[in-house]
Amino acid sequence: MHPYWHDDLDRVVDTVRFGTYGEIDFSRQNMSAPGRSDTALRTTRSYADDGHVDQVTDALGIVSCCVPQLTGTRAMS
């Protein structure tokens, strides 16, 4: 199971992988994205002013930056 959290512009900012969550019912109603842990593998995206993904922080806390290419695409570094 991996629910998503969105910002005010409806862009995905957090994804959290919970595994099976003990095979019990899960509700994220009124729940903010949990912190990174061994049981909550959280990936966070931040966005540049132009709306493109600027940084991605993975479940280990490793930050990757997106850099614009001459072709108009963005590459991770």
Mean pLDDT: 80
Overall tally of domains:
1
Q: Quick one: how many beta strands?
A: 6
Structural class: mainly beta
Order of helices and strands: EEEEEE
Determine the strand fraction and express it as a percent band.
Answer: 35-45%
Concise synopsis of the structure shown:
The protein has 77 residues and is mainly beta.
Q: How would you describe this protein?
A:
With 77 residues, the protein is mainly β. It is 0% helix and 39% strand. It has strands at 4-6, 12-17, 41-47, 53-57, 63-68, 74-76. Strands 1-2-3-4-5-6 form a 6-stranded antiparallel β-sheet, with no helix packed on it. The model has no long low-confidence stretch (mean pLDDT 80).
Topology (elements, then pairings):
Layout: E1 4-6, E2 12-17, E3 41-47, E4 53-57, E5 63-68, E6 74-76
Antiparallel strand pairs: 1-2, 2-3, 3-4, 4-5, 5-6
Features:
77 residues, 6 strands, mainly beta
